[in-house]
Amino acid sequence: MKRRVARELVVQCLYQMEMNEATSEEALEMLLEDAAEENDTERTITDEAELKEFVLGLVNGIWGSKKAVDDLLENYLKGWQMSRLSKVDRQILRLAAYEMLYRDDVPAKVAVNEAIELAKHFGTEDSGKFVNGVLGNMIRELDQLKS
User: Fold this and answer.
1) Mean pLDDT (whole number) for 18-23
2) Cβ-defined contacts of 48-55 (< 8 Å, 24+)
3) Model-level pTM?
4) Residue ranges per structural domain of the chain
5) Taking every annotated instance into account, which residue ranges of this chain make up the domain NusB/RsmB/TIM44 (predicted)?
6) N or C, which end of the chain has less CB nearby within 10 Å?
7) CATH for 65-147?
8) Do 130 and 119 meet the contact criterion of CB atoms below 8 Å apart?
């Protein structure tokens, strides 16, 4: 399973959940069905069960920790509020912050780099720079706290 693909699905699931008030399972099923229809073949995801488990684990973890993650991110937004961010940037920041705080299997720098790439892929022209700035400040402070 490629974690980049999984992270793309996580961002899309979070977006669907926020926009359509769907459950994580409903959002993921919609995305996988759309992907299968677009490919017009059998699903190209080789180990779909492993992918679903990984994606749902992240999505449910993020959604369950949303208030804590959002409150932390607010400290690094410099003149912004979570509610004013684009919905895509908000989901990407939530994913990266969650991975940095709650996942031992993801180095913080990897979480940041993945978030920047997701922002470039899904966001606006400035999303990558914005996400980098927010998470860069966060990672520096977290590193100082660990020292």
Assistant:
1) 92
2) 50/1, 51/1, 51/5, 51/6, 51/9, 52/28, 54/1, 54/3, 54/6, 55/6, 55/9, 55/10, 55/13, 55/28
3) 0.90
4) 1-64, 65-147
5) 5-140
6) C
7) 1.10.940.10
8) yes
